Amino acid sequence: xxxxxxxxxxxxxxxxxxxxxxxxxxxxxxxxxxxxxxxxxxxxxxxxxxxxxxxxxxxxxxxxxxxxxxxxxxxxxxxxxxxxxxxxxxxxxxxxxxxxxxxxxxxxxxxxxxxxxxxxxxxxxxxxxxxxxxxxxxxxxxxxxxxxxxxxxxxxxxxxxxxxxxxxxxxxxxxxxxxxxxxxxxxxxxxxxxxxxxxxxxxxxxxxxxxxxxxxxxxxxxxxxxxxxxxxxxxxxxxxxxxxxxxxxxxxxxxxxxxxxxxxxxxxxxxxxxxxxxxxxxxxxxxxxxxxxxxxxxxxxxxxxxxxxxxxxxxxxxxxxxxxxxxxxxxxxxxxxxxxxxxxxxxxxxxxxxxxxxxxxxxxxxxxxxxxxxxxxxxxxxxxxxxxxxxxxxxxxxxxxx
Length: 402
Known about the structure:
The protein starts with a strand and ends with a helix. Residues 1-39 have low confidence and may be disordered. The strands form three sheets. Strands 5-4-3-6-7-8 form a six-stranded mixed β-sheet, with helices on both faces. Strands 1-2 form a two-stranded antiparallel sheet. Helix 5 runs antiparallel to helix 7 (247-280), helix 8 crosses helix 9 (301-310) and helix 9 (301-310) packs antiparallel against helix 11. The chain has 14 helices and ten strands. By secondary structure, it is α+β, with helices and mostly antiparallel strands. It folds into three domains: 2-35 and 290-401, no CATH class; 51-180, Nucleotidyltransferase, domain 5 (2-Layer Sandwich), CATH 3.30.420; 189-283.
């Protein structure tokens, strides 16, 4: 991707909501990438489900053991097997069930397995797909569960819920469950710098607040731990009684400053490594998309890197799909005559939602002349309850990127 000009993001003939109107100055063209994005619907299967020739299995993962439930053509029983946490053992179990189905006179043409997304990530799905098995990762919050106050919960019951939801998804029925896109190992590894940067930033803020709180407890105000000479200034601090900082508190603050310095150095190291990668290989992988977004005013490299590696690595149909991926859709509460909106659903990727909201705020701050900002200001002129979520949903370059 490349950006021909810089300015408002509305193409000629459309307003912020996609309707026809005046002119814009952004021109975006596509070039062939290593992994082109294609439209896909992960809320239902697009392949016909032949139950007599399909072996279906669901896996309830845990730290030490897995519980595997199967639906094997030709067998009256529904097998349930507990295994050690090993991918090769799971593949061997599926091969054994396939052999049993063949012995009963059935021909197995498809093997589909699914498990919930969680701590184990996506490595098991990649292992299964490398062995020729269809592997899917289910969104945990898309599984319908009983609403009793104290419902029974065991691995056996959970595999039953997973099997019912997975079978409905395989039949092509909607609202049974939704699948998570499975990233490659390179795509998953590309997320690590941005996520580590986010955690280190939170750690930096936590240490600074801890130092300030320790000094405020002694009546000392105005100390800035982010200064380079903060350690030297610490020796000259005095309490309102004119006394120096107590020795134990002083030693603790020194250790906190050393820890703060280390965290800041690691943050700078991550930023320098990212800049070096973008400079040395600007056309490699998702780097063209990152550079294209970073050229737009109000978007920095950090936000662009987060959006590209957290959201745009997977196929998304349109800007509404981007909003759903980030949990930016609404949550209506309607019953009878009651009509109210509970706010954002917040059911998607929290990192993407945070980046989109920050981008919406910066867009109205630094792109004051754009048609989108003017529409937002006119829309919220007589209301104090509307937020900048509307800007996030309407930003036109979501459609250009996806």
